[in-house]
Structures are given as C-alpha cells and as structure tokens.
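User: Teach me something about this protein's shape.
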Amino acid sequence: MTAEGGLREQHKARRRTRILEATRELLRDGPDSVISAERIAERAQVAPATVYNLIGPREKIWEALAAGFMDELERRLAVLGADDPREVVRSTVRLFVSDPVVSRRIVREWEDSGLVLDRSPLTQLRRAMAGARTQGFLRADIDTDALAAVVGTSCVGALHQWVAALIDDDRFLARALFALDVALAAAAADPHRDQLLAPLRTRGAP
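Assistant: First, the predicted structure itself:
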C-alpha cells in the first residue's frame, strides 16, 4: 500500500470511529432516541452517504456497535491476562452493564443480537476452558467447545432478561456465573470436584 493509500485508510478509520461514537452519544441522549443515518451524520459532522459507505444500513450499525463491545472486551481481558473462565464471564457482564443504554438498544433492535456473544466471549471462554482441561481441572474426555457453547447460551438468556429489566445488574452477573459453575462442576475431574462444586454449595440458584 502506498503512503497516500495508507493515509486514506487512516482517515476512513477515524471517520468510522467518529460515526460510531456519535451513534453511542445519540443512544445515550435517551432510551427512545431515533437512530438514522441523517442524525448520526449530523452528530459526527459527516455526510449521510459517509455513514452508509463506512458502516452501512441500520442493521450494520448495530452490528458495528456490537463489534465495538467485543473489541473492548478483548482489550480488557488482554490487560487482565485472563485465562480463568469466571473472569471471562465476569468481564463480559461488567462490560454490558457499564454502558446499559447502548447495550440494551443493541440487544433490543439488532435482529442478530443472539450472536452478540459469539465472537470474543465465546472464543475467550473456549480457550479458558481448554486450559482448565489441560491443567487437569476438567475431565480429559470433556468437549470444552460444547461446554462453552452451553454456558454462552445461558449467558445470552441472562442478558435478555437484564435487557428486559427482569433482573438487575447483580442478578445478571449471578446468573451468568451460576451457569458457568454448573458446567464446570458437571465436567470436573475427580481431584478438583469438591473445589468446583464449592460455589454451588455455598449459594442457591440466583
């Protein structure tokens, strides 16, 4: 790529970042804020066509916002050096509740919101569970990818309950961790069974 081409890509990336931040600001203006290319463009100080060209139509805007959440999660987990499945789940929940207006609108209005945890949290959770199996905490015959998928499905359910205001932030975290603890206890290797059962024995279902 030429220097001119590289500079052009940098300008596009900056405009794209500005567009997404403008969208977040509009969402935070109120829970029922109308999101349109024209309003986003006005806030970002770009042409409406730029919103379409760099992001896309409405569904692509939600998808890009969700991807931004996952990028931030990956940064947080990298800083933590997290290889503990509980930390992956805890960090994911904390990320969503830290920006509740934006995260709730993504889940409510993005048609593919069921996929919101498919990228980073599931990838990180699979890796962490595979590490737990390698370390002997989980049985060697366990399919950790399948186990992570079950936990992910439960977390999506808890996320939708939180979005619908059926549960608060603390209950959201408790239910997500409970799903993980049940999965880990079911897959525990004999030497670590009591350790992985302990969280379930000290509290009931959330």
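Now, about its shape. Residues 34 and 130 are 43 Å apart (CA to CA). The chain has a mean pLDDT of 88. If you'd like, I can walk through any region in more detail.
User: That's plenty for now, thanks!
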